[in-house]
Amino acid sequence: MKVSYHGHSVVKIETNGKTILIDPFINGNELTDLKAEDEQPDVIILTHGHNDHVGDTVELAKKNDSLVIANHELATYLSWQLVKTHPMHVGGAYEFDFGKVKFTQAFHGSGLITDGNEIIYMGMPAGLLLFIEGKTIYHAGDTGLFSDMKLIGERHPIDLAFLPIGDNFTMGPEDAAEAARFLKPKKVVPVHYNTFPPIKQDPHKFVEMLDGCEGQVMSAGDVIEY
Ligand code: NI
Ligand code: MN
Protein backbone atom coordinates (compact mmCIF):
# COMPACT_ATOMS: atom_id res chain seq x y z
CA MET A 1 0.00 0.00 0.00
CA LYS A 2 1.17 3.51 -0.85
CA VAL A 3 -0.03 6.45 1.25
CA SER A 4 0.87 9.86 -0.11
CA TYR A 5 0.25 13.46 0.98
CA HIS A 6 -0.68 16.22 -1.46
CA GLY A 7 -0.96 19.45 0.48
CA HIS A 8 -3.72 20.80 2.78
CA SER A 9 -5.77 17.71 3.80
CA VAL A 10 -5.36 15.74 0.58
CA VAL A 11 -4.26 12.14 1.11
CA LYS A 12 -4.06 9.42 -1.53
CA ILE A 13 -4.02 5.71 -0.80
CA GLU A 14 -3.16 3.15 -3.46
CA THR A 15 -4.04 -0.42 -2.50
CA ASN A 16 -4.60 -3.57 -4.57
CA GLY A 17 -4.98 -1.62 -7.81
CA LYS A 18 -7.46 0.87 -6.32
CA THR A 19 -6.87 4.56 -5.77
CA ILE A 20 -8.57 6.36 -2.90
CA LEU A 21 -8.49 10.14 -2.57
CA ILE A 22 -9.40 11.84 0.72
CA ASP A 23 -10.61 15.48 0.60
CA PRO A 24 -9.44 16.16 -2.99
CA PHE A 25 -9.03 19.95 -2.86
CA ILE A 26 -6.82 20.36 -5.96
CA ASN A 27 -7.90 23.46 -7.94
CA GLY A 28 -7.21 26.45 -5.70
CA ASN A 29 -4.79 24.49 -3.51
CA GLU A 30 -1.45 26.16 -4.11
CA LEU A 31 0.40 23.53 -2.05
CA THR A 32 -0.70 20.49 -4.02
CA ASP A 33 1.39 18.65 -6.60
CA LEU A 34 -1.71 17.05 -8.17
CA LYS A 35 -3.48 18.06 -11.36
CA ALA A 36 -7.20 17.32 -11.28
CA GLU A 37 -7.20 16.24 -14.92
CA ASP A 38 -4.58 13.54 -14.21
CA GLU A 39 -6.29 12.00 -11.18
CA GLN A 40 -8.32 8.80 -11.63
CA PRO A 41 -9.68 7.91 -8.20
CA ASP A 42 -11.82 4.80 -7.80
CA VAL A 43 -13.00 6.12 -4.45
CA ILE A 44 -13.24 9.60 -2.90
CA ILE A 45 -13.80 9.97 0.83
CA LEU A 46 -14.87 13.33 2.30
CA THR A 47 -14.53 14.39 5.92
CA HIS A 48 -16.95 17.33 5.67
CA GLY A 49 -18.68 19.80 3.36
CA HIS A 50 -16.25 22.72 3.46
CA ASN A 51 -14.99 23.82 0.06
CA ASP A 52 -11.33 23.19 0.94
CA HIS A 53 -12.22 19.49 1.41
CA VAL A 54 -14.96 18.77 -1.17
CA GLY A 55 -12.72 20.54 -3.69
CA ASP A 56 -12.82 18.86 -7.12
CA THR A 57 -14.98 15.93 -6.00
CA VAL A 58 -17.90 16.41 -8.43
CA GLU A 59 -15.73 16.79 -11.55
CA LEU A 60 -13.40 13.94 -10.55
CA ALA A 61 -16.22 11.58 -9.61
CA LYS A 62 -18.18 12.24 -12.81
CA LYS A 63 -15.17 11.81 -15.05
CA ASN A 64 -13.87 8.66 -13.35
CA ASP A 65 -17.13 7.11 -12.15
CA SER A 66 -15.66 7.25 -8.62
CA LEU A 67 -17.61 6.15 -5.57
CA VAL A 68 -17.90 9.08 -3.14
CA ILE A 69 -18.15 8.18 0.54
CA ALA A 70 -19.40 11.03 2.71
CA ASN A 71 -21.80 11.80 5.53
CA HIS A 72 -25.45 11.31 4.66
CA GLU A 73 -26.30 14.95 3.97
CA LEU A 74 -23.25 15.63 1.83
CA ALA A 75 -23.62 12.29 0.01
CA THR A 76 -27.27 13.05 -0.76
CA TYR A 77 -26.37 16.50 -2.08
CA LEU A 78 -23.67 14.99 -4.31
CA SER A 79 -26.02 12.24 -5.54
CA TRP A 80 -28.30 15.01 -6.86
CA GLN A 81 -25.38 16.02 -9.05
CA LEU A 82 -25.38 12.49 -10.45
CA VAL A 83 -22.34 11.37 -8.51
CA LYS A 84 -22.22 7.74 -7.29
CA THR A 85 -22.29 7.90 -3.47
CA HIS A 86 -22.24 5.80 -0.34
CA PRO A 87 -23.67 7.70 2.65
CA MET A 88 -22.33 7.04 6.14
CA HIS A 89 -22.34 8.82 9.49
CA VAL A 90 -20.43 9.32 12.70
CA GLY A 91 -19.96 6.07 14.62
CA GLY A 92 -20.71 3.87 11.63
CA ALA A 93 -18.33 1.54 9.83
CA TYR A 94 -18.75 -0.24 6.49
CA GLU A 95 -16.71 -2.91 4.72
CA PHE A 96 -15.88 -1.84 1.16
CA ASP A 97 -13.97 -3.91 -1.41
CA PHE A 98 -10.78 -1.93 -0.64
CA GLY A 99 -11.09 -2.12 3.17
CA LYS A 100 -13.20 -0.84 6.04
CA VAL A 101 -14.11 2.81 6.69
CA LYS A 102 -15.36 4.13 10.02
CA PHE A 103 -16.62 7.67 10.55
CA THR A 104 -15.55 9.24 13.84
CA GLN A 105 -16.55 12.50 15.46
CA ALA A 106 -14.92 15.83 14.72
CA PHE A 107 -15.65 19.23 16.25
CA HIS A 108 -15.99 21.66 13.37
CA GLY A 109 -18.55 22.96 10.84
CA SER A 110 -19.64 21.34 7.59
CA GLY A 111 -21.66 23.92 5.58
CA LEU A 112 -21.01 24.12 1.85
CA ILE A 113 -20.53 27.72 0.82
CA THR A 114 -21.98 28.44 -2.65
CA ASP A 115 -21.25 31.14 -5.21
CA GLY A 116 -24.70 32.55 -4.52
CA ASN A 117 -23.92 33.79 -0.97
CA GLU A 118 -25.56 30.73 0.55
CA ILE A 119 -24.36 28.20 3.08
CA ILE A 120 -25.93 24.78 2.58
CA TYR A 121 -26.14 22.48 5.61
CA MET A 122 -24.00 19.39 5.03
CA GLY A 123 -24.45 17.45 8.23
CA MET A 124 -21.78 16.88 10.84
CA PRO A 125 -18.07 16.88 10.11
CA ALA A 126 -16.17 13.65 10.64
CA GLY A 127 -12.81 12.04 11.08
CA LEU A 128 -12.01 8.80 9.27
CA LEU A 129 -10.60 5.48 10.37
CA LEU A 130 -9.44 3.36 7.45
CA PHE A 131 -8.63 -0.31 7.92
CA ILE A 132 -6.64 -1.37 4.86
CA GLU A 133 -4.17 -4.24 4.38
CA GLY A 134 -3.97 -4.81 8.14
CA LYS A 135 -3.05 -1.18 8.86
CA THR A 136 -5.17 1.43 10.61
CA ILE A 137 -5.01 4.97 9.26
CA TYR A 138 -6.73 7.88 11.01
CA HIS A 139 -7.50 11.11 9.15
CA ALA A 140 -8.84 13.53 11.75
CA GLY A 141 -10.51 15.83 9.21
CA ASP A 142 -10.87 19.36 10.55
CA THR A 143 -11.36 19.33 14.31
CA GLY A 144 -10.50 20.82 17.63
CA LEU A 145 -8.94 18.67 20.31
CA PHE A 146 -11.33 16.31 22.11
CA SER A 147 -10.60 13.82 24.88
CA ASP A 148 -12.47 10.95 23.17
CA MET A 149 -9.44 10.72 20.90
CA LYS A 150 -8.16 8.51 23.75
CA LEU A 151 -11.05 6.15 23.11
CA ILE A 152 -10.43 6.11 19.37
CA GLY A 153 -6.76 5.23 19.92
CA GLU A 154 -7.49 2.60 22.57
CA ARG A 155 -10.16 0.80 20.57
CA HIS A 156 -8.37 1.04 17.22
CA PRO A 157 -4.55 1.05 17.57
CA ILE A 158 -3.45 3.50 14.89
CA ASP A 159 -0.47 3.00 12.61
CA LEU A 160 -0.62 6.38 10.88
CA ALA A 161 -2.51 9.54 11.88
CA PHE A 162 -3.02 12.69 9.82
CA LEU A 163 -3.70 15.57 12.23
CA PRO A 164 -4.48 19.21 11.41
CA ILE A 165 -2.03 21.66 12.95
CA GLY A 166 -2.93 24.94 11.23
CA ASP A 167 -4.68 26.54 14.22
CA ASN A 168 -7.39 29.19 13.63
CA PHE A 169 -9.89 26.74 12.01
CA THR A 170 -8.65 23.54 13.69
CA MET A 171 -6.22 22.36 16.35
CA GLY A 172 -2.94 24.22 16.45
CA PRO A 173 0.42 22.52 17.01
CA GLU A 174 0.16 22.32 20.83
CA ASP A 175 -3.33 20.82 20.77
CA ALA A 176 -2.39 18.49 17.93
CA ALA A 177 0.60 17.26 19.98
CA GLU A 178 -1.83 16.58 22.83
CA ALA A 179 -4.09 14.77 20.33
CA ALA A 180 -1.14 12.55 19.44
CA ARG A 181 -0.66 11.75 23.15
CA PHE A 182 -4.35 10.77 23.32
CA LEU A 183 -4.37 8.75 20.09
CA LYS A 184 -0.98 7.05 20.54
CA PRO A 185 -0.42 6.37 16.84
CA LYS A 186 2.84 4.85 15.65
CA LYS A 187 3.36 7.77 13.28
CA VAL A 188 1.84 11.27 12.94
CA VAL A 189 1.82 13.46 9.84
CA PRO A 190 0.75 17.11 10.20
CA VAL A 191 -1.78 18.45 7.67
CA HIS A 192 -4.01 21.51 7.08
CA TYR A 193 -1.31 24.19 7.43
CA ASN A 194 0.35 26.87 5.26
CA THR A 195 -2.39 26.76 2.62
CA PHE A 196 -3.82 30.12 3.69
CA PRO A 197 -2.28 32.99 5.72
CA PRO A 198 -4.27 32.32 8.96
CA ILE A 199 -3.01 28.70 9.14
CA LYS A 200 0.69 29.36 8.69
CA GLN A 201 2.72 26.96 10.89
CA ASP A 202 6.13 25.37 11.13
CA PRO A 203 5.43 21.60 10.95
CA HIS A 204 8.93 20.80 12.20
CA LYS A 205 8.18 22.57 15.48
CA PHE A 206 5.06 20.41 15.81
CA VAL A 207 7.09 17.24 15.24
CA GLU A 208 9.57 18.34 17.95
CA MET A 209 6.67 18.58 20.43
CA LEU A 210 5.71 14.92 19.95
CA ASP A 211 6.62 12.38 22.57
CA GLY A 212 6.00 8.66 22.32
CA CYS A 213 5.36 8.60 18.60
CA GLU A 214 7.24 9.37 15.44
CA GLY A 215 6.41 12.54 13.52
CA GLN A 216 6.96 12.89 9.80
CA VAL A 217 6.65 16.13 7.87
CA MET A 218 5.52 15.21 4.36
CA SER A 219 5.90 17.51 1.37
CA ALA A 220 3.32 17.31 -1.39
CA GLY A 221 4.00 14.09 -3.28
CA ASP A 222 5.83 12.30 -0.44
CA VAL A 223 4.91 8.63 0.00
CA ILE A 224 4.79 6.25 2.97
CA GLU A 225 4.91 2.59 1.88
CA TYR A 226 3.48 -0.28 3.88
NI1 NI B 1 -13.29 22.72 7.39
MN1 MN C 1 -10.49 22.89 6.21
Automatic annotation (TrEMBL):
<dbReference type="InterPro" id="IPR050114">
    <property type="entry name" value="UPF0173_UPF0282_UlaG_hydrolase"/>
</dbReference>
<dbReference type="InterPro" id="IPR001279">
    <property type="entry name" value="Metallo-B-lactamas"/>
</dbReference>
<feature type="domain" description="Metallo-beta-lactamase">
    <location>
        <begin position="7"/>
        <end position="192"/>
    </location>
</feature>
<comment type="similarity">
    <text>Belongs to the UPF0173 family.</text>
</comment>
<keyword id="KW-0378">Hydrolase</keyword>
<dbReference type="GO" id="GO:0016787">
    <property type="term" value="F:hydrolase activity"/>
</dbReference>
<dbReference type="InterPro" id="IPR022877">
    <property type="entry name" value="UPF0173"/>
</dbReference>
<protein>
    <recommendedName>
        <fullName>UPF0173 metal-dependent hydrolase ACKA06_12085</fullName>
    </recommendedName>
</protein>
<dbReference type="Pfam" id="PF12706">
    <property type="entry name" value="Lactamase_B_2"/>
</dbReference>
<dbReference type="InterPro" id="IPR036866">
    <property type="entry name" value="RibonucZ/Hydroxyglut_hydro"/>
</dbReference>
